[in-house]
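Today's session is about reading a structure prediction critically. Students often jump straight to the picture, but the first step is always the sequence itself: look for stretches that repeat, for charged clusters, for runs of hydrophobic residues. Only then move on to the predicted structure, which in these notes is written as discrete structure tokens rather than atom positions. Here is the chain we will use throughout the hour.
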Amino acid sequence: MSDDAQVDVAVVGAGIIGLATAVELLRRQPARRVLVLEKEEAPALHQTGRNSGVVHTGVYYTPGSLKARLCTEGRRLLLAFCDEEEVPYDVCGKVVVAAHERELPALDELERRAAANGVEAERIGPERLRELEPHCVGASALHLPGTGLVDYRLVAAALARRLENAGGTLRTGTRVLALHENRGVRLATDAGEIAADLAIVCAGVHADRLAGGHGRETRVLPFRGDYFALRGAARKLCRNLIYPVPDPRFPFLGVHVNRRPDGEVWAGPNALVALALEGYRRRDVVPREAWATLSYPGFLRLARQHWRMGMQELYRDLSRHAYAAQARRFLPELTAADLAPAPSGIRAQALARDGSLVDDFLFAQTRRVLHVRNAPSPAATSALAIARHVVDRAAAGEQ
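Below is the predicted structure for this chain, in token form.
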């Protein structure tokens, strides 16, 4: 039996939330034996390492929601952590652009949410927009100077170092197959069984597989987001971050253009249901996983309600010209020839049985197991605050 076959807390998943949770557990109780299990050979290979690299301010989220509160707190904790660990970041600001006057009411609502959530925001006109982003046009915009950029893979690597320096263990290449709860928790893995007093599951798109009965009220769907990199001189079309006004019916932010931590400029992502939990390419299909998604009553209701939007997303996914046209609403000089394929990401998004997309962080809990059931964007920004929230809940459940 290995030294870590019996632990105090087992954390499933070495994305940024799982690592932050393990670090927070050890910060509070340094003597605890904490083990993080990751099925890949390295941490942060999925949502954490395949996003836009944006440090969000919390402007989009319903006041009073977990997203609003934990994003604001998480941003502060994240930047402080980066300072401590010497992880580079850039607070460069961003603009959210109303390309047409019909989008002004939605921009007004964002401005109200910014005020309610304590987010610094300035309403600006076309002239000021041109000063900030010389190639960008719009009827009006919201300038958010606190938005930043960071490489979340570097943040995850720093968390992994802090975990091991604090006495915790990260075991990669170990897939958790099932959890059995009794007086403690027994985790069946492909490398043997592990016993723990408590398990915290941060499994992203695999949350349903491990949640058992706790996953019946929602289903986690994999939404693939394709990115394109701007070629050559087209990179100069965007200085920092340019976002459209999002559609209030969906928890997605729309196709935006932003500089990345490595200096590249990307456009994206779109949002299409993938036919595999880790379906990063169009041709990736796992029949069992595709059937579980497409046969779910919530997905069928979502498809009936928003089939036009779905067809538009599919068309844009297949046509680079249509994709460029989305961004050309606020960057009129951008052409399809300026776009080169870039890596895709998968967003794990919970969907309720009534067809509504869950628009807040979501957790399920028993006395011995806590499941992170929905943690899409801004989860990376919010990770250190989510970790505190998770550990608070787990501690309350153990009492």
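Discussion point for the tutorial: The first helix runs from residue 16 to 28.
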